Structure formats: structure tokens, C-alpha cells
UniProtKB/TrEMBL annotation:
Taxonomy, superkingdom: Archaea
UniProt keyword Nucleotide-binding present: yes
Domain ABC transporter: 5-235
GO MF term (any one): ATP binding
Protein known as: ATP-binding cassette domain-containing protein
Pfam families in the cross-refs: ABC_tran
Keywords: ATP-binding, Nucleotide-binding, Transport
InterPro entries the record matches: AAA+_ATPase (IPR003593), ABC_transporter-like_ATP-bd (IPR003439), ABC_transporter-like_CS (IPR017871), ABC_transporter_ATP-binding (IPR050763), P-loop_NTPase (IPR027417)
Family according to the record: Belongs to the ABC transporter superfamily.
Length: 311
């Protein structure tokens, strides 16, 4: 697969010595969806803005279809890019259609109404919403319109900063399908998120932590590598006794107490789970639930930091 986007050794220091991005290298192939997953402040937006050609890097190389975004042919590289920042670039007094027309003219392309209507329908934006002023849109509607604005010129590389923020689960599902379809048409789609569900639906996930890439791979590979266990939640009459017994049990990877609930990571199949359940029964089991690990668990195992918390 061709490399649509290549980033080598990207770093950014903000004034005051804040190192927001610290030596990041990654590749996004044409035809694939890549998620940059990390909590607030991990450097995702900074990295994306540098790749989009809107924030000057302290160092690093950003290649779009082989053209250096920050080099002499930067204008050509930027023509191949679509960028959706976190703050929507819209005029509140103009309608959706009028804002899109403005974006198309800035990009020097004709507004393809058919493309807009198709995307609006797929995203669940609604045809009549496009005729209304953007000032009256909800946050989710603005995100959808911003995505449409970013693809009007049919870019080779699509960079989306938290396209899923403010979307309900149904809209998130639609978004994931649209991103996949855009990638299938040959683009590299790269988006930032701190929502595990969104990342789990990408082809490639890059874990970002404190400005660095900690791990990357297909979602299933990352889960398998970093958290190949089931998570069992237990409430029991004698949590201390249960904890002590579980810590001695084979197949138990770790035991954590969270608000009176024991969270047990169990490696192995049904036998290991059954042994945990039997131990719990001996200590006054009140509630037990088990779930398979997800990408959030892999992120926590790889970085030591949960996705939801700032640090
Ligand atoms: N303009 C700026 N000046 C100084 N520091 C900044 C600036 N923009 C971001 N930072 C800092 O750089 C670090 C990375 O921020 P960045 O916004 O890139 O992270 P992020 O992972 O995208 O987080 P979020 O999900 O909140 O957007 C943070 O410590 C942030 O406070």
C-alpha cells in the first residue's frame, strides 16, 4: 500500500518549554483509517495541526504523497490535505450550504451538491439542516458539517481532530462507516480521539502519551499484546479475604480495588474464570460480572494512564 502520510521525528515545543510532541514518527497508508488515541494533553491536536501545515513544527518531516508539507512544495502538499480542527471554522450567521460554498471557494473547487447531500445523509445531518444558520446547530451537527467541509476537494489525506466529540453513539457509528468509506476511495484518514470505541473501529491505532507514541498496531493486536485477559468485577462480603485468595490464584494477572469493587484481570479461558468465581463464592459473593478487554484496557496497560484522566 502506498504511503499517503509519513511523519518522521516530529517535535513541538511551545513557549515556556512545554514539550507537546516529542519525536513522533508514523505512517498512514492510502486506503486506511488511523486513530491517534490518547487522553487530553497527550499531543494529538498539536501533531495533527503540524501535519496539516497550520502549526510550525520545532522539528520533523511531514510528507503527504511524498511532498514535504513544510518544504518548498508545501502548497502542493497542502492541496492534497483535508483538515478538520477542533473548533469549527464556520460563520454562525451563514447557513450550512453557504458555509460549505465558502469552504469550496477557498479550496478553489466547485461545490459538489451531490457529494454534500450524500455525506449529510450518511452522517445523519439532515438535508433541511443544511439550509439553516450554523449558529443554531448543536455541537454534533457542527462536527458533521465540519467533516463535510474538510472533504469538499476530495483530499488524499484527511486529518480530523476529534470528529467524534459531542456525537451520540448512533452518530459515532455512522461516522465510523463514513471514515471507512472515505478510506476505501483511496484516502488516508487520520483522526484523534480519546474514545476507545472510535479507535477500535480504525484499521490502525496509535497510542499517544505525553507527546510520544507508546504503541501502534491493529486494534485487535494491541488488545492481544497489552491486555490479553478478561476483566471480572466482584463484590463480596469479605473483600479483603477474597483479594488475598485471588492474589495467590493461578491465572490472576492483577487485582485492584475500586470503590469497594474488586477488578480482577484473569488470563486464560473458562477454567481460570471458574476458579475466580469459586473463590468469590467462598468469600460471600454478592455480584460478579465479566467482560472482554477493550482498547481502553490496552491503553491503560501500555501507558499506566486511563484515557479519561488528565495528567
Ligand atoms: N498554544 C499552546 N501554547 C502552550 N501550550 C500548549 C498550546 N497548545 C497546547 N499546549 C500544551 O501542549 C500539550 C499537548 O496539547 P494538545 O492539545 O496537542 O493535546 P491533545 O492530546 O490534543 O489534547 P486535547 O484532547 O485536549 O486536545 C498540553 O500540555 C497542552 O497544554
Amino acid at each position: 500500500m502506498d504511503k499517503c502520510l509519513e511523519i518522521r521525528g516530529a517535535s513541538k515545543q511551545y513557549p515556556g518549554g512545554i514539550v507537546a510532541v516529542d519525536g513522533v514518527s508514523l505512517t498512514a497508508s492510502c486506503g486506511t483509517v488511523t486513530a491517534l488515541l490518547g487522553p487530553n494533553g497527550s499531543g494529538k491536536s498539536t501533531l495533527l495541526a503540524m501535519a496539516a501545515g497550520v502549526l510550525r513544527p520545532s522539528s520533523g518531516v511531514f510528507l503527504v504523497a511524498g511532498l514535504e508539507v513544510w518544504g518548498p512544495r508545501g502548497r502542493d502538499a497542502r492541496r492534497l490535505l483535508g483538515y478538520m480542527p477542533q473548533a469549527e471554522p464556520f460563520h454562525p450567521l451563514l447557513t450550512g450550504w453557504e458555509n460549505l460554498a465558502l469552504h469550496a471557494s477557498m479550496r478553489g473547487v466547485r461545490l459538489d451538491r451531490g457529494l454534500v447531500l450524500e455525506l449529510a445523509e450518511e452522517l445523519g445531518l439532515g438535508r433541511e439542516a443544511l439550509g439553516r444558520r450554523v449558529g443554531g446547530y448543536s455541537g454534533g451537527m457542527k462536527r458533521k458539517l465540519a467533516l463535510i467541509a474538510a472533504v469538499l476537494h476530495q483530499p488524499r489525506v484527511l486529518l480530523l481532530d476529534e470528529p467524534d466529540s459531542g456525537l451520540d453513539p448512533g452518530s459515532r457509528r455512522r461516522l465510523a462507516e463514513v471514515l471507512r468509506r472515505l478510506a476505501r476511495s483511496g484516502a488516508a484518514v487520520v483522526f484523534t480521539t480519546h474514545i476507545g470505541w472510535s479507535a477500535a473501529h480504525a484499521d490502525q491505532v496509535v497510542f499517544m502519551h505525553r507527546g510520544r507514541v507508546v504503541a501502534e498496531g491493529a486494534p485487535g493486536e494491541l488488545v492481544e499484546k497489552y491486555s490479553p485477559w478478561h476483566l471480572v468485577e466482584l463484590e463480596a462480603a469479605d473483600p479483603e479475604g477474597l483479594r488475598a485468595e485471588l492474589e495467590r490464584l493461578g491465572g490472576v494477572e492483577r487485582v485492584e480495588a475500586r470503590d469497594g469493587v474488586l477488578v480482577v484481570a484473569v488470563r486464560g479461558g473458562p477454567d481460570a474464570l471458574a476458579a475466580v468465581a469459586r473463590a468469590a463464592a467462598r468469600h460471600g459473593l454478592r455480584r460478579l460480572s465479566a467482560r472482554e478487554p477493550g482498547i481502553e484496557d490496552a491503553f491503560l496497560a501500555a501507558t499506566g494512564q486511563p484515557l479519561g484522566e488528565e495528567r
